[in-house]
Design brief:
By secondary structure, the protein is of the alpha/beta class. 27% of the residues lie in helices and 18% in strands. It folds into two domains: 376 residues, Alkaline Phosphatase, subunit A; 84 residues, Arylsulfatase, C-terminal domain (2-Layer Sandwich), CATH 3.30.1120.
Length: 514
């Protein structure tokens, strides 16, 4: 057989050129799509649940609690499979979210409580310092209307930490996290004004009297109120969207549910009254409840229903495709207040709960939806954290983010090439006397490692470090620290280099009260 090599070469060259042109066109299209998103100034709704575990919603495996609207976000958007909270308790986690700083650099590194639980003692938590750059100040400077509805926890009434002094045009919700232990409070705050609710005062940490019958519904009558704060938050969020639909807006919707106490309108319990129950008498903390499983499930479904109402309104206003929704939680779940973590498998397959820096305490059930931009039914394993929100939203707004610890995860949302962190760092300081550090990092073989160090009375100031191979052991069942001394040394270096000294002595690991 005779082969015309010249003809063969020409065909091969032509084919190669066509492939090259197609590839270049594809790259140019991708770049054009990326550039069209950066600076596109979509509306942003960031929804934060409170003490919601990664196993508590259907998109991440929940079997007993129905969350159809969060399912819709999953089906029409993306699951972020490795997205982490800023911390394992409320205030430092929210501080990280707002400032783009992890807890080794942030001002607020623990729940620093001021005042008490009564209305007269309401002083909140440590306030953000004046002039702190937040997501809200950044977006307000970019021309966004900014609103916070829900739980703040970064400055109490009359302090320099209130939301309106940190970039938010509008605020309705709880300033003091302790007030949020009661979902039927006497009041919320609207901007800097007392916003009354139709409730008599109820102290949120009282047990069922020992002589009361826990199986008698009448034993719980004194704990009931009518004006459910979570529903007020939902209405305020809807009103904010309606009032600002003609311009770019940022809404931070921070529900106080399902954080204890377990409280929910009676009619919302009905869908879960088939659970077998043991009444929670609250001999240890929070308020009693005759059906604690049903109450916590209904609180989560209440949040889900609110999400559904928000999405319906976006479509009704014609701004659905112009709005990015992100849903997450501030830290892992807790059995406090009667929450049954084992029954609901609230932390999924992961180890640890709230106040732990194991995965169950900080890996969050995170979803993102942006029709036409985020691929429906997609998922991302990109490793990200709360402090990445600020640069992500800076990209969307077309502004430069303040210098902080974050990396924009916008490429991950769009399924494009994504830069990654060399390491992620957390530290936690408990009022109960224990302190901990954790770091997630990669080795030269691209293996993902997690190191955890816990300080307590027994450990002294130089506790052992636990090491876990998250690729083969994502549930942190096997401590392999004895096998990899070089990785322990690297973890110690990262822990030391990832933090600055705090002005609070108890938040420095060389000055821990033991």
């Amino acid at each position: 057989m005779n082969i015309d090599l010249n003809l063969f070469s020409k065909k091969f060259l032509i084919r190669s050129l066509l492939l090259l042109v197609a590839s270049l066109n594809s790259m140019m299209l991708l770049e054009a799509q990326t550039n069209s998103v950066i600076g596109s100034r979509p509306n942003v709704i960031y929804i934060l649940a409170d003490d919601l575990g990664i196993g508590d919603i259907e998109p991440f495996g929940q079997r007993y609690i129905k969350t159809p609207n969060l399912n819709r976000i999953m089906n029409e958007g993306m699951r972020l499979l490795q997205h982490y909270a800023g911390n394992t308790v409320c205030a430092p986690s929210r501080a990280s979210l707002m400032t783009g700083l992890h807890s080794g650099h942030a001002q607020i590194r623990g729940n620093f409580e001021l005042g008490g639980f009564t209305d007269e003692e309401e002083f909140g938590q440590m306030p953000l310092n004046p002039g702190t750059q937040t997501v809200a100040t950044m977006l307000a400077g970019a021309g966004y209307r900014t609103g916070l509805v829900g739980k703040w926890g970064l400055g109490g009434p009359g302090s320099h930490g209130i939301p309106n002094k940190h970039g938010f045009d509008y605020f309705l919700g709880y300033l003091d996290q302790k007030q949020a232990h009661n979902h039927y409070p006497t009041h919320l705050w609207e901007n800097e004004r007392w916003f009354p609710l139709n409730n008599a005062y109820l102290y949120p940490h009282q047990p069922l009297p020992r002589d009361a019958d826990p199986f008698d519904p009448s034993s719980y009558e004194s704990y009931k109120r009518d004006d459910y704060a979570q529903d007020r938050l939902t209405e305020a969020a809807l009103n904010f969207i309606k009032s600002n639909s003609e311009q770019p807006f940022f809404l931070y919707l921070a529900f106080a549910a399902p954080h204890a106490a377990l409280q929910i309108p009676e009619d919302e319990l009905n869908q879960y009254l088939h659970f077998e129950e043991t009444p929670y008498t609250a001999q240890r903390n929070y308020l009693p409840h005759p059906t604690p499983r049903a109450a916590r499930a209904a609180m989560i479904s209440n949040v889900d229903s609110a999400v559904g109402r928000l999405m319906s309104l976006l479509r009704e206003l014609g701004i659905d495709q112009d709005t990015l929704i992100i849903f997450s939680s501030d830290n892992g779940p807790t059995p406090e207040g009667g929450g049954d973590m084992q029954f609901f498998d609230s932390n999924g397959p992961y180890r640890g709960y709230k106040r732990d820096l194991y995965e169950g305490g900080i890996r969050m059930p995170t979803l993102a939806r942006w029709p036409g931009r985020i691929e429906a039914g997609s998922s991302s394993s990109h490793v990200s954290a709360f402090w990445d929100l600020m640069p992500t939203l800076a990209d969307l707004a077309g502004v430069e983010a303040p210098s902080n610890d974050g990396i924009s995860f916008l490429p991950a949302l769009l399924q494009e090439d994504q830069a990654r962190h060399e390491s992620l760092y957390w530290e936690f300081h408990s009022v109960r006397g224990s302190h901990s550090q954790a770091v997630r990092f990669f080795d030269s073989q691209n293996t993902s490692w997690k190191a955890v160090r816990i300080y307590n009375e027994r450990s002294g100031l130089n506790p052992e470090i636990e090491l876990f191979d998250l690729d083969s052991d994502p549930y942190e069942t096997t401590n392999v620290s004895g096998t990899y001394p070089e990785l322990i040394m690297r973890a110690k270096q990262i822990m030391a280099q990832s933090r600055t000294r705090s002005f609070i002595d108890a938040w420095n690991f060389d000055f821990l009260p033991m």
